[in-house]
Amino acid sequence: MDLLRSLPIGLYLEQPQTWMHKLDPRVKFFWLMSFLTTYLYANNLWRVLLVVILILATLIARIPRRVWGQQMGWLLALCFFVLVILSVSPDGYGINYHPRLPTKQQAVAAQPTPSSAIAPLPGSTPQEYKYVLFDKGLVRATRHSVDLAIRVSTMVFTLIYSTNLYLLTTAPEEITAAIENLMQPLQRFKIPVTEITLTLTLSLRFIPLVLEEIQNLVRSIMTRAINWKKLGLKGAVKVWMLVAERLLENLLLRAEQMANAMMVRGFTSPSEHRVQWHNLRLGRRDWLAIAFLIVFWGVRLAIGTEV
Angle at which helices 44-60 and 284-303 pack, to 10 degrees? Predict the structure, then answer.
């Protein structure tokens, strides 16, 4: 079991360097915020289109399949189960749907009438409205439940995968440099922008350490070949409580080591000990990405708004 390879959440892909890696982190940040906000008050067509765009962007960027294959597969499987479960779940209205016409009116409507009286309008086709889309046995799917299922499943995929794709193609130092650059106007209000970005940098660097500690503890449990049936529920809970305690101790030790390393190097405050990792400049790729972002929002306003 290798968590760092099978589940690379929040890790940066150093090699190979794709065209998505070379984009300005500020431009990628605006793209990420667009993905995280455009599904609000959007119709289902746009929500599904966001999922398709994310998958196509991954394929066009030529990111190695070993990086995204298993993770995207698990995420798509999760979203599919959410879609199925919510589709057959109660829609929350708590009503029994009946046809709009009473029985007597249905009988009257069933009588033969002249063809001229029931002729449809030119260019229109009669359509029968059905609120209950599927109803057999205990399985019942309505329009509202299917609509809710599509909304939730696409939202889960968009939130998780767009954020992971951003972290996968953007170094932590680039992320913090972009956020610090965008937050510069807040310094007029005496907001500690540099301290905030430093905290963000350390937290992003700490994610791989957390995964590594979890991986080591899980391997240590597996190598001991514990008989969980003999332990019972109370014994199993006690073992995992010891593992959680050990994990917390290791993480606190790592944090203390990181703090000592910063103090030894003379780090007193972010404003006095700053290192410029990246020189943020917009290139041709960035301007092209900005143009596509404008088109992206134009399409969203044109076809994606929920009526």
Answer: 160
Contact 149, 80 (CB under 8 A): no
Beta strand pairing status for 132-136 and 139-142? antiparallel
Q: Give the separation between CA 235 and CA 218, rounded to whole angstroms.
A: 17
Q: How far apart are CA 276 and CA 173, in angstroms?
A: 9
Going from the C-alpha of 296 to that of each of 75, 151, 245, 299, the distances in angstroms are: 24, 20, 47, 5
Contact assessment for residue 164 and residue 9, using Cβ atoms and an 8 Å cutoff: yes
Low-confidence ranges of the chain (pLDDT < 50): 1, 3, 115-118
Give which of 236, 169, 232, 179 is closest to 203, Cα–Cα: 179
Which H helix or E strand runs over 300?
helix 284-303
Separation of alpha carbons 122 and 175, rounded Å: 58
CA torsion 174→178→181→183, rounded to 10°?
Answer: -130
pTM for the complete prediction?
A: 0.68
CB 96 within 8 A of CB 131: no
The distance of Cα 56 from the centroid of its chain, to the nearest Å, equals 16
Dump pLDDT digits (tens) for 166-201: 888 888 778 878 887 888 888 788 877 777 777 777
Two structure tokens written together for 99: 């046809």
